[in-house]
Amino acid sequence: MQASAQGYALALENITCTFASRENRAARYTAVKDTTLRIAPGEFVSVVGPTGCGKSTLLNVGAGLLQPSSGAVTVFGEKLDGINKRAGYMFQAEALMPWRSALDNVTAGLSFRGVPKDEARERGEEWLKRVGLGGFGDRYPHQLSGGMRKRVGMAQTLILDPDIILMDEPFSALDIQTRQLMENELLDLWAAKRKAVLFITHDLDEAISMSDRVVVLSAGPGTHPIGEFAIDLPRPRDVAEIRSHPRFVELHAQIWGVLREEVLKGYQQQLTAV
Ligand SMILES: Nc1ncnc2c1ncn2[C@@H]1O[C@H](COP(=O)(O)OP(=O)(O)OP(=O)(O)O)[C@@H](O)[C@H]1O
Question: What's the CATH fold of domain 10-86+163-273?
Answer without folding.
Answer: Rossmann fold (3.40.50)
